[in-house]
């Protein structure tokens, strides 16, 4: 683990090389509890690795079990449209894990959990923060990259890069977002992992007004849809929204207008996607002159954005109604002001 030889290990433990060799060969069993605890302390590893259980070690295991459950529950809450609850779950966990690392207890399982918790916190914050504060969300996901690269696990690194890249896109750092998402796609170990990256790469490419990259990412995503399990992001409904937004962003609004009424079934998608898709649909309908259809879609989106506490989506509604649909714009503006006051307090 430490990459040291027998002499260096002996010096670290206070034993001579002969004793270290005998221990490694099983000729000198390490049966004494105090000796095992000494070795664990000097090598900075949890005592339970050497079969020593004490109150501090029990607390360590309980913290890991609690932390892993908190990360899972937070993700379920976010997917169900309760991102603020996810933040409340993850914030104290991240603080506790960071304090443990600061105290010198940087066990591998603690570092891995810390990386997962930081990513989860950043993604949840990306849902509940207004646009001007979205770089904060991206910074939290970015803080997991060093840990992910330390583990040299392509699948985990790809996951962190994917989440970080998407938060960079939301913060309008689109060039950096595309770079991170390209890295995530390159490291993806299988079609399932690649399918998680490609829709986000397509969105970032559209935001960058790169029609060639957008078309390529959408085309590959469509191919994977036929034989890869669908998720809350990787599904025909989500891809339809991504395609509409990307077509508009890359100067092909006419194509988007022709597709807007052909929305696939939303079964299995995350709660936030219904809001995102309705706003995108309304924007396309306004481009096609359908003010009534746009107003209906935005009214439903607005209600859900308020219920789910999604200030970024309210800001999208305000932009979509600029110069048009003043009643919807005013209602969205009032709701956004209310959320900002609550966050300030």
What is this structure, in a nutshell?
It contains 18 helices and no strands.
How would you describe what is shown here?
By secondary structure, the chain is an all-alpha fold. It contains 18 helices and no strands. The chain has helices at 6-13, 17-24, 33-43, 55-79, 83-102, 108-128, 134-142, 145-151, 154-170, 174-187, 191-207, 211-225, 236-249, 253-259, 271-287, 291-308, 311-320, 326-344. The relative contact order is 0.06. The mean pLDDT is 91.
The helix content, as a percent range, equals: over 70%
Number of beta-strand segments = 0
Main sheet summary: none
Q: Report the total helices.
A: 18
Could you outline the blueprint of secondary structure elements for this entry?
Layout: H1 6-13, H2 17-24, H3 33-43, H4 55-79, H5 83-102, H6 108-128, H7 134-142, H8 145-151, H9 154-170, H10 174-187, H11 191-207, H12 211-225, H13 236-249, H14 253-259, H15 271-287, H16 291-308, H17 311-320, H18 326-344
